[in-house]
Amino acid sequence: MAIALLGLLAMQIVYLEKMVAMRNSQFSEIVMRSLYSVSTMLEQNETKYFLDKDLAEAEQTYSGISQNSFSFSDRHEATIDTTFSTDAATKPRPANINTLKDLNVKDLNDSYQRKQETLKGQYLYQKSLLNEVILTILNQSSDRPIQERADSATVASYLRSELEFNGLTLPFEFAVKSRSNGVVYKTDGYAPVSQQDVYSQVLFPNDPKNKQNTLCVFFPNKSDYIFSSVKFLVPSLAFTFLLLGVFLYTISVAFKQKKLSEIKNDFINNMTHEFKTPISSISIAAQMLNDDSVRKSPEMLKHVSSVINDETKRLRFQVEKVLQLSLFDRKNATMRLEEEDANASIYSVINTFKLKVEKYGGHINANLDAEDPIINVDRMHFTNVIFNLLDNAVKYRREDVAPELEVTTINPNEDHIQITVADNGIGMTREDLKKIFEKFYRVSTGNRHDVKGFGLGLAYVHKMIDLFGGSIRAESELNKGSKFIITLPLYK
């Protein structure tokens, strides 16, 4: 499924890129075709300008000759008419229509040749006129200022009409540049970010190279135009990303559930073993009470009673740990906050825990130096926090060194108290430090199997300190010990 989704996403991205490239190519083709048409129209305007100029000069040159020859032509025509009328009067009228055949064919041929000569003369005159215009354009047109040959209003009008004719109605900015002087003129908004966004066309390509000018056009909204033509693909791409995200989230949840299931199975197995030992001890003690010899011996009865009492406390402690799970499933735990002396509470826990530390040949150093120890906490949960930290210090002790625990309290400022619990145990790696406050997480102890627990102690500590409005952090070095630093606000 992951391969299919990634393949679909890759195909859509490739298709989108090709669509954008195709639209860019079409856009460039339209613009270049329009620029070529503008250049051609300006060349036609240039030719028309020189034709009009040459015709005007020709009319002025030949106007005097036409007026002088007018009287001569009139007299010649009058003479011809008089001669024709005199000849017509003196000559006899033809007797019938057959006399037309007697017309001289030679006269007709002469008339035709005269007309041919006349047309040839007109053609030669027009050809010479065009040759003069062409020579004038080739020799003189490049000397005219470009502002006269292609003024900005004309260029803008031609550009707009050609672009609209080709179906492009985007706003544009343009400039005319020369090879020698740079920008000749430009519109106010002509400020291209990159030269790749500029389309250019040489104006009057027949000009000498050093006198050529270039028309440059820039479209500020080109990217929006390109995007608008392919935006119908964006929802499809977004839905594919959404589907991929949901798929990855589902896979992540599945792996988390799998891991959580394994952790809970380990928790249940561990809890079973934790409960099995005190229950077995209580069961054996109860069986011993049924023995008459045990009941008759006060010392044996006292010993059995102490075993039952100790194992009952141990079982109650394990049950309390299991009940702590409910705190992680509720947003707000039920607590009774009250004014509490942190030094006194910690000292009480140390006295209770001292025997367990001394059992392994170690001891606890208490440096309760906080001058203002009054905090606002739930007494039971606060003592449980300190007890859990001390219990972990003993659990994760080193085999080759007697456990040495140190508990200190200070006031780092006038608003807080800082509680530090340090030990010389096996320590932790950096990877373990990142996860020790997670629920069910337990630090690996190698081949040691005497470390029991549910992986809830530090998670419970972190949650309680957070509910008290404080913070907790851990510092540790492998095989050198760990230090837990709690910061709580003072009661005001």
Structural account:
By secondary structure, the chain is an alpha+beta fold. It is built from 13 helices and eleven strands. The protein has helices spanning 2-90, 105-140, 146-149, 152-165, 222-230, 233-289, 292-296, 298-323, 325-329, 342-359, 379-395, 430-435, 457-467, and strands at residues 173-178, 182-186, 198-203, 213-218, 338-341, 363-368, 374-377, 404-413, 416-422, 471-477, 481-489. The protein has a five-stranded mixed β-sheet with strand order 6-8-9-11-10, with helices on one face. It has a four-stranded antiparallel β-sheet with strand order 2-1-4-3, with helices on one face. It starts with a helix and ends with a strand.
Beta strand %: 5-15%
In what order do the strands lie side by side in the largest sheet?
Answer: 6-8-9-11-10
Overall pLDDT, averaged? Answer: 79
The major pleated sheet works out as:
5 strands, mixed
Q: What's the β-strand tally?
A: 11
Question: What gyration radius follows from the Cα positions, in whole Å?
Answer: 55 Å
- From the helix content, strand content and strand pairing, which structural class follows? alpha+beta
What's the helix-strand series?
A: HHHHEEEEHHHHHEHEEHEEHHEE
**Gap between N and C termini:** 59 Å
List low-confidence stretches: 68-103, 447-451
Spell out the blueprint of helices and strands.
Elements lengths: L1 H89 L14 H36 L5 H4 L2 H14 L7 E6 L3 E5 L11 E6 L9 E6 L3 H9 L2 H57 L2 H5 L1 H26 L1 H5 L8 E4 H18 L3 E6 L5 E4 L1 H17 L8 E10 L2 E7 L7 H6 L21 H11 L3 E7 L3 E9 L3
Parallel strand pairs: 6-8
Antiparallel strand pairs: 1-2, 1-4, 3-4, 5-7, 8-9, 9-11, 10-11
Helix pairs in contact: 1-2, 1-4, 1-5, 1-6, 6-8, 10-11, 11-13
